[in-house]
Design brief:
Blueprint (H helix, E strand, L loop, with lengths): L1 E7 L11 E7 L8 E9 L4 H4 L19 E8 L9 E4 L6 E4 L14 E3 L17 H11 L9 E4 L5 H12 L3 E6 L2 H11 L3 E4 L5 H8 L4 E6 L3 H7 L3 E9 L3 H4 L12 H5 L3 E4 L9 H13 L7 E5 L4 H9 L6 E5 L1
Parallel strand pairs: 8-9, 8-11, 9-10, 11-12, 12-13, 14-15
Antiparallel strand pairs: 1-2, 3-4, 3-6, 3-15, 4-5, 5-7
Helix pairs in contact: 2-3
Bound molecules: NADP nicotinamide-adenine-dinucleotide phosphate.
Amino acid sequence: MKTKQIQLKYRPKKISSDCFKLVESKIPALKKNQVLVENLYMSVDPYMRLSMEDGADLDAWKLNSALDGPSIGIVVDSKNKKFKEGDIVESMSGWQEHFISEGDGFIPYISLNTAIKKRIVPNGLNAKDYLGLFGISSQCGYFAVNNATKVNKGETFVVSSGAGNVGMMASQVAKIKGMRVVSSTGSNHKAEWLKDNLGIDFVFNYKEQSYEEALKKGCPDGIDLVLECASANHMSACMPLMNVGKTILLTGLIDIYDNGGKVKDFQNLEFLLYSYLTLKSHVFMDYLDYYDNFIKDVTSWYLSDKLIYKEEIVEGIENAPSALVSLFEGKSHGKVLVSI
Ligand SMILES: NC(=O)c1ccc[n+]([C@@H]2O[C@H](COP(=O)([O-])OP(=O)(O)OC[C@H]3O[C@@H](n4cnc5c(N)ncnc54)[C@H](OP(=O)(O)O)[C@@H]3O)[C@@H](O)[C@H]2O)c1
């Protein structure tokens, strides 16, 4: 039986679909303890742009080899007692139609092996929800507001890349906790959607207004929590508006991932000292002890229409490269998954 996978042809200066290629190969016969998985969906995520760099902090993708990334699949053949045909499994073996796994030991985001984890799909949900609704970006947004720091009703929460998966989840958890939410996005269409559908209190298009001007207008009582997803410029503009003793969580800087990967300018650092601020890295993996609570809360909010989740499904493994590129062009809105 034949299968297809996407490989990286070269390391680009600017991401484009052209740096990827589609490769066909034969699936080898299974050995003892091995499992054959057919991928159903894979996730494309901003951090993957960093994996395309040689010597990246995260595991760098090798050229002309299988890539890794979150995926959900179904066991189609098994010589391993722990897995049977029809089991739904999560893995880090995306970017391919099939893969052979040595068994369990899966840790999200760690791509050192082909380990898999069996997943039970809650009633009313779908297997792909383990990549989207329950995926790493949703976890990142939920943990930011729910677990990373104490927040209070009436406080102001600011998030950049507000129409992305992290931004939408964090904003809605903040609204559930009674916070005032201010977010930025790169299009008027997404800004309207955020206001009309998620009830975000103040949204601005950062391509039309400066961060300084918009945030001053949107945060008349100062800022109590920032979740930084996009850029050092946004974070710099938040600094002077921070209320004393409050927190900035730095979770991502998509602005630099396809632009050399280095922050060139960060302003207003003195407010860290003047306003007794805490600046903290925020990584979803640090909160996995709260994973079961996350699944419980998100399932119940989503099924009772308290939480809106938006995703775009791109059809076909051959379109996975353009799905990843769309994140850096501002074309995506919500979580982007590829149906394999
Ligand atoms: N540390 C963690 O645990 C963790 C986990 C998941 C994600 N993250 C990080 O969180 C951030 C958001 O992730 P996500 O999965 O929700 O993706 P996302 O926000 O959906 O990412 C795509 C969006 O980013 C925005 N964008 C693209 N280029 C930009 C630029 N130059 N400046 C500002 N915004 C830009 C675009 O939205 P607009 O059109 O609105 O600009 C685009 O639609 C990323 O930085 C990611 O690396 C961190």
